[in-house]
Amino acid sequence: MSSQEIDTKAYFHFRKFAVKQDLCPLKVGTDAVLLGAWAEFPNAEKILDVGTGTGVIALMIAQRHKAYVKAIDINPIAVEQSADNFKNNLWANRMHSRHISVQELAYTMQKFDGIVCNPPFFTGCLPSPNGEKNQARHSDLVMPLKDLFASSANLLQPTGLLALVLPAELYEKSLNAASAHKLYPIRVLWVKTLADKPPKRVLLQFGFTTKEEQPDVNEISIEQLPDGSFYPEYQGLIDNYFLCKEERKMIFGERKRAVVSGEK
Prior knowledge:
Elements: E1 11-13, E2 18-20, H1 30-38, E3 46-50, H2 56-64, E4 68-73, H3 76-87, E5 95-99, H4 102-105, E6 112-117, H5 131-137, H6 139-142, H7 145-155, E7 156-167, H8 171-179, E8 184-192, E9 201-207, E10 216-221, H9 232-238, H10 245-261
Parallel strand pairs: 3-4, 3-6, 4-5, 6-7, 8-10
Antiparallel strand pairs: 1-2, 7-9, 8-9
Helix pairs in contact: 1-2, 7-8
């Protein structure tokens, strides 16, 4: 084992799986982790992860659901990395990664009980020199919200659900785009980075309901407290996924000792 193999920039370690992320332009982040932990698809048999990247959301969904999980991405490198992550985990027999856009997939006859997506949402911003990172971050380049909702409406079963995470300022825009396809929010989670500041993100779960039906609305803060803990609502979401301090010490301590001793 080389020192590079214990580098947390190359791997992100969870309790039941590790995500290799050295090839993907965007690494494992808070948005993806929140969505993967929060999205719920009761009794789902097939779930689609759109824009899978490293595959972290798909893996989190597979840990908590018994469904078959299909992951798609327009970046072939992301597909390669996610496929590699899928085959090295406990749920490999019901996970698959494919190089295709959600717009293309929507023209097939496939149907899903759930769709989850951490979409690119940096609209109208100055693109970076990194073309792959642009694809992953800029919705106006690859996947406008209206396309996501249109495609999802075609891919979902009548009782299917769509879950996504967005900047808080895109909340109203997302509702308008979704309602054009008779999708309405049934769950909403406002996310604050600091408890005394306005929300930065919003997690939404849509279904084919009616605009009159009121969604279940909640709010959490992901601010770390002075003692190193988190607010109970956030801690409850991540408990099944994140390593505690003792577990991290054990994993990384053992790996560092292996590197020093020259073990493979």
